[in-house]
Automatic annotation (TrEMBL):
<protein>
    <submittedName>
        <fullName>Uncharacterized protein</fullName>
    </submittedName>
</protein>
<feature type="region of interest" description="Disordered">
    <location>
        <begin position="550"/>
        <end position="570"/>
    </location>
</feature>
<keyword id="KW-1133">Transmembrane helix</keyword>
<keyword id="KW-0472">Membrane</keyword>
<keyword id="KW-0812">Transmembrane</keyword>
<feature type="transmembrane region" description="Helical">
    <location>
        <begin position="498"/>
        <end position="515"/>
    </location>
</feature>
<feature type="transmembrane region" description="Helical">
    <location>
        <begin position="12"/>
        <end position="30"/>
    </location>
</feature>
Amino acid sequence: MAETESIIRKLLPLLLLLITTIVSVALVASRTRRNIGAFNSFVKNNRDTSALVIQILSSILGSCQVYAICSTLNFSTRLYFHQNSIPLPTLSFWSAFVTPRLEFSLSKWHLVTLAIWYIMSKIPGALWAGALTPLFVPVFQKAGTISIPTYPLHARRYWDSEFVRYSNGQTDRLMRCTKTTDTPYQNWTGPFVSSCPDIDFMSALTDLVGSASPTSDSSPWVHSNLFQPDWSFIGRSYGVGSSPALINPAQTAPIAFSAYNYTEIGYFTNVTCIQNVSASYEVLYLKQYGTQAIEVGLWAANGTLPNSVPGSFELYPLITRSKHQKFVLAWSSVVNNGQNLIAVAAPGGTWYHPWNKMQCSVEFYPSLFAVAVNLTSKTITVTQSLEHQSQNITDIEQTGNLTANVMLALDRLSRMSSNLDVSVLGNSLIWNMVNIQRSSPNITQAEAHIRGLEDSFTAVLDDLLVAYGAMELVLAHASKESLFSGFYSALKVGSDRYIFAILGVNLALLIVLAMETRRTRFWKGLTSFNYTDVKHVVVATSAGEKSRARTYPVPSLDNSSSRTRSESGYELEDDMAPILLKLVEHNTRVVFTTGNDDTTIELLK
């Protein structure tokens, strides 16, 4: 009675597939999990070790799947070969197929099939590598708090000290400024901050006037932070977002974040400009002063605005190099009767005359904004959360003095700008109009002048509010905490497509194994004889082991042919290779008979 295959050997493919299936199901179940703890730090700091471990694990799990399918094929073919004749090339092919390996002595079609199968046997390991490789993916979660500015009355000496407005409409423009260069702030190591941003950031504000509009509809408008040029705003600042360039938010996560989001209440500034030909605000030439060698022309920005206090008027001097130098531009801001108005004037016959007689109305709507901060690129993106729903938002400064001061700071910017040869502000407006025409080539010149002026005023007012916010944080220490969500580089095990792919492979192999187990009734009658084991391969092939005896012609045996004795009989080597082999049991008796020309092998059972 032939020895049967062990139960453990038959169950081993199923056990291995159960292990790989459990692992793949666990990967599917955990694919939404993100790690920002110690495991994340280990992988990030030991990428080479992690890659080595993944390679080893994927090779082991892939080998388990390959072994399971190859063992299933081995069991089934052994049952088939037990009952049927099999030529030596076919036997060699299946021996290589279930190993799997390449056998170059076979025909080209067998070799091509083996090559394809050999490559396919490496796929499970590759899929496991994709399913196990740690990936760093972005994840947002609440991470701590960040300080944002407030404008309490006890800090009014900082944010409301630059201008004094009287009931008769007059305004005193003071030089009462507090700066981080002052003695009380000598330990401050951050960027320069001032309570008079219109004075101390005049150059940056003038540049902003000339670059307030994007040059292309396809690219966002990017501009530098006033007090920290290393940081930039993508799009409008909307007067918020002063905190990121000044302070580091307090976080609770064990790893650093690369970006974060928070909300802040500010003002949505809306500027609307028109050409008012009946406006009384104008630039007038007064007289010439100096000698023949050195002379200057004296001009005056003079007039009233629709919201001016009765009996008051705007008036300040402008100087050019001579009376013939007409390149002058000026504007004035008036805050009164709940209105914020700006008037622009320029003499005729100059580059700036298209802006003459323009008037702009400014509205400040309390709004909630979402601030997105990218620490890697040092950029800040602000978006409005509620569209002009001021009735649902608490005004950050309810006296109105903050927005009034911003308007007066814009007014002072014009008073400080040079007009000796050309107007610095006028040239900046020209450059911004060019940007408008580049981004909107179909727009008319008149529309470009108006839109450019609106964009310039909006940008300056927005960033003045940002500067006031910085002053509150650093100089007045007036702030409150706002929750922020951190953008982390979290760790995720495996790519979803590879996780589902390896799960599909596991399920397919389990189905094949179950069907084959049922078809063969758990490989009933399978003996321990294995044609891939050289110890079990002896001689020739036959019509089946059930034959009692049969004679096969073989090449003549001479002294050059080698014969060796084994437990089950003789093995014929060297020039005996072309003969057909018979797979025999250990209890088979082999008898050799030699004739004059041919040698026969008689197999008895």
